[in-house]
Write a structure and sequence with these properties.
Elements: E1 2-5, H1 11-22, H2 26-37, E2 40-48, E3 51-60, E4 67-75, H3 84-98, E5 103-107, H4 110-113, H5 120-123, E6 126-127, E7 135-139, E8 149-150
Parallel strand pairs: 4-5, 6-8
Antiparallel strand pairs: 1-2, 2-3, 3-4, 5-7
């Protein structure tokens, strides 16, 4: 299995994978909007035997420092719990660090994302419509440049229910 940047030929397969993973179209449409809005920064696929089995997207956020939002993350149902999502997250965080992004926010399960150093306490000083125990942050250096302020996901996220 390889992790690589998405390309134009992957878009239909990504759309189908994400829709199947979430059992609805909302997240697949969100990804399409993030691409068309120009807020998609990192979009990676996991490929095994020429089949896309996983996808992750990082989009540019409004924050007091250079920040990305992780999500959506999707793995084909029959391939879950095999480390594909973890590899996508680690590769994405490495790419973000290489590109000098300073932090990443995620809205998700703390038990899962804490394995990648995401911490709800680190996001606790930030004001967001998603504030709460499932909003987490990770610093891509020794620490976040700010510990409070307003953060906003790209406008495309407003369409999610």
């Amino acid at each position: 299995m390889i992790i690589r940047d998405e390309n134009q030929a992957d878009l239909d397969a990504i759309h189908k994978l994400v829709a199947a993973a979430f059992q609805r179209l909302d997240e697949a449409v969100l990804i399409d909007r993030l691409r068309s809005d120009g807020t998609c920064v990192i979009s990676l696929v996991a490929v095994d035997s020429d089949e896309i089995v996983g996808h992750i997207l990082f989009s540019k956020m409004t924050a007091p420092f250079r920040a990305l939002g992780l999500g959506p993350l999707s793995v084909k149902a029959s391939r879950q719990r095999r480390g594909i999502g973890s590899r996508l997250i680690r590769t994405g965080l490495d790419r973000a660090m290489e590109a000098r992004w300073q932090g990443v926010f995620v809205l998700g399960d703390p038990k899962f994302y804490s394995r990648f150093w995401f911490d709800a306490a680190l996001a606790g000083g930030f004001i967001s419509r998603y504030s709460g125990p499932n909003l987490m942050a990770v610093a891509l250096g020794t620490e976040l440049p700010a510990t409070e302020g307003v953060i906003e996901y790209p406008p495309a996220f407003d369409s999610l229910g």
